[in-house]
Amino acid sequence: MPAAAYLEKLNPEQRLAVEHGAAGAPDGGPMLVIAGAGSGKTTTLAHRVAHLIAGGADPSRILLLTFSRRASVEMIRRVDRIVGEALGVRSREGGVSLPWAGTFHAVGARLIRDHAGAIGLDPQFTILDREDAADLMNLVRHELGLSKTHKRFPAKTTCLSIYSRVVNAGAELDRTLGESFPWCAAWKAELAALFGAYVEAKQAQNVLDYDDLLLYWAQMAAEPALAAALGERFDHVLVDEYQDTNRLQSSILLALKPDGRGLTVVGDDAQSIYSFRAATVRNILDFPGNFSPPARVVTLDRNYRSTQPILSAANAVIGEARKRFTKNLWTDRTGGARPLLVSVRDETAQASYVADTILENREAGQLLKQQAALFRASHHSAPLELELVRRNIPFVKFGGLKFLDAAHVKDILSLLRFVENPRDRVAGFRTLQLLPGVGPAFASRALDAVAASPAPIGALAEVKPAPRVAEDWALLVSVVSELADAGTGWPAEIAAARRWYDPHLERIHEDAAVRQADLAQLEQIASTYPSRQRFLTELTLDPPDATSDEAGPPTKDDDYLILSTIHSAKGQEWKSVFVLNGVDGCMPSDLAVGSSDEIEEERRLLYVAMTRAKDQLSIVLPQRFFTHQQSARGDRHVYAARTRFITTAMLDRFESVGWPAAAFEAGARKPEAQIIDLRARMKAMWR
Ligand code: ATP
Ligand code: MG
After folding, report:
1. Fold for domain 308-400+556-658?
2. What angle, rounded to 10 degrees, do the helices at 156-169 and 173-180 form?
3. Judging by DSSP bridges, how do beta strands 371-375 and 574-579 pair with one another?
4. Where is the UvrD-like helicase C-terminal domain (predicted)?
5. Is 658 annotated for ligand binding?
6. pLDDT for 506-549, tens place per residue?
7. Which CATH architecture has domain 5-108+213-300?
8. Ligand 1 pocket: which residues have CB below 6 Å?
9. Beta-carbon neighbour count of residue 513 at 10 Å?
10. Which of 47, 122, 280, 395 qualifies as a FRET site for 290, CA 20 to 30 Å off?
């Protein structure tokens, strides 16, 4: 076969990375592709996987780790297309299977379940999301009596953050407290006791939190008896966005592939934005030296995504970074306008500017899908969301408030989780306390009995509640047995769960009708999963994105605008990008104006946001914006200045405009109350 057409599209460096160790030597040595934004790292990874498969590698022995499920779905689609092109078939139709792809957490969950027996875990374990984990932390804290005697003890979410950082960074509690949570350092002994009890509680209840999905995987992979089942089961392990992995994740890779053969990682240190989750840029910088001989390092220097004006503005911003390994990129897309710096009066004006421009772009032929509004924190998009709803512009929001966080959705999921694993205390507590008259003390005693019994449902039936609770209790026992009975089957179970929940929903919530619509949607989502267990696991690890459409997530053919936090926009690209709130206080966030490391991370965030744009980039600067930090006068609005990352010396790379020009010049201001009112309405929208 002549050099395949898909290889000819690549530049020489990309091709080198794609073909590394492929021909005749399927287990080439370790490789690192390190390069700036839009240089084709992800493209190279997809081509490499496809090239390996086209060359005869067994797809079921290839593992592809991505940062989000969305990214893994997209990657598989690309691999499928290239393999199809190479072999002249659509791989699925041609009977060629596809590689394993997913996030570290999702792959971890699956491998742990597969090998649970070997590490003494019950494979029926359930997974706690962050909120559940914080609730369990709180339960344990109460049991230890830390809440009664220690009023100023750190909040449950802070405790969980500390615990999580210790686990993910592989650091000592002492050091973690000193470096990241100095205000909690006085509680070291109590925290250590709390974390010990938290780990015990998880084990007793057969539940795993997110961190466990990595921790158990890392420990399993390091176990010689499991090496064949884990490390040797994959010939190739490939990782995208490697700059945002943490110590625990790098230790998993090293345990899977101690000599690095078949290991490929790609990333960009200038885009490292997850240090708050213990990600460390050291992983990518230290990667080559982990192996002997050291890993092959491939760098890419051509950007295929953005026009030259966008790229040079982004290069200027990142050029001021204190430390950076990747070099500036070049592009031959020399045309195009300079990025806009758009001054607007406030966030309301920002919303109208973005909505107006998006509609103009659509008139000019750009789909909504080809445009995105990006922001630092999820709540920053609230005024824009409201404006979009008002104008009937459909949108999907990534990285925002999740559908699953709604109380009624959690109630149904807790019941299912309790059925799946009756020892899951957070789920059990939530379910039992839905019954009027059942409080924490009684629920706790009942759950103790359930957990101690080899026949949990029988034990639940034998609990003797107060007479006024007896009827509801009997109904609960009956639905739990019905769901646990394999006869009901999935997804019919969820309808049964809803029937049971209905009267509670009506009783608890005034807006029951709206919530019913959510539950109907949940039922619809459930029907796309093969089993209760897969549904619970995958939904917990990858909750659906929020959408403006009551009918649920849009289908492939719908056109909708993308709203995304910058963190969730990683790896993606759009023709037009609007960066909201490009002002000091948002970028850098006023929460980050602490250490210089934090400030540097905020600079990288802006760089990530800017480099998402292909053709058009607007950074919007509201002169006033809403902040959660109250000033001494109780004012929650601050007058903001352009982000410090765009210095005066860089201004010639941008075009500065005011919008709307007339109003801007007149300096007219809207009354403050209007913005506050918008916030309240947005909250109501999410209930
Ligand atoms: P990021 O750092 O943002 O994750 P990346 O380095 O992963 O970016 P890709 O997303 O792979 O970059 O590629 C950016 C764009 O460049 C995509 O639209 C991709 O199709 C295009 N591209 C990559 N390589 C080539 C090439 N050799 N020829 C033409 N287009 C390319
Ligand atoms: Mg990428």
Report:
1. Rossmann fold (3.40.50)
2. 120
3. parallel
4. 308-571
5. no
6. 998 888 887 888 888 888 888 888 899 999 998 888 776 666 65
7. 3-Layer(aba) Sandwich (3.40)
8. 9-11, 14, 37-43, 268, 271, 304-305, 571, 573, 611
9. 10
10. 47
